[in-house]
Amino acid sequence: MTSRIVTSPRLPRPVGYAHAVVAGPGATVYLGGQTAQGPEGEIVGATLVEQFDRAAANLLAALEAAGGTPSDLVSLQVFVTDAGAYRTCLRELGEVWRRHFQRHYPAMALIEVNGLFDPAALVELMGVAVVAER
User: What is the DSSP string of the chain?
Assistant: First the structure.
């Protein structure tokens, strides 16, 4: 995919996200929210980092099924039940991020919510990708 990261000189330097992404030609793929669900539908992992790892793997499995790769991701919303816990785990979350996405950072938002559909879920990822026609 030939997306282009845009960094505004009027905003603080982005670290771990992009100010904007101009998506290249291709099919837009809207990825449904993914939590840390295992094969039987149960939440896997007790910590935010463990659940983020599984949710990222699930998101990428959906993207792969649509013909995409991590570099096709142009937008990601991270829903968490505790934003403070997310900030506390940034180093470990960064390691998980790089394992799944390398150093590809789409336009992102972190949103704290009161709860997710599965009460055991601590994080849910929802994204948009643009996949080049093959």
Answer: ---EEE--TTSPPPSSSBSEEE--SSEEEEEEEE-SB-TTS-B--SSHHHHHHHHHHHHHHHHHHTT--GGGEEEEEEEES-HHHHHHTHHHHHHHHHHHHTT---EEEEEE-S--SSTT--EEEEEEEEE---
Q: How many CB atoms lie within 10 A of CB 5?
A: 15
Helix axes 90-101, 48-65, angle to 10 degrees: 20
- 60-119 pLDDT, tens digit per residue, is 999 999 999 999 999 999 999 999 999 999 999 999 999 999 999 999 999 999 999 999
Q: Hey, what CATH class is 4-131 in? A: alpha beta
Helix, strand, coil distribution of the chain in percent, nearest 5: 30, 30, 40
Question: For the chain, what are the domain ranges?
Answer: 4-131
Q: What is the pTM of this model?
A: 0.89
What is the C-alpha separation between 45 and 52, in angstroms, rounded?
9
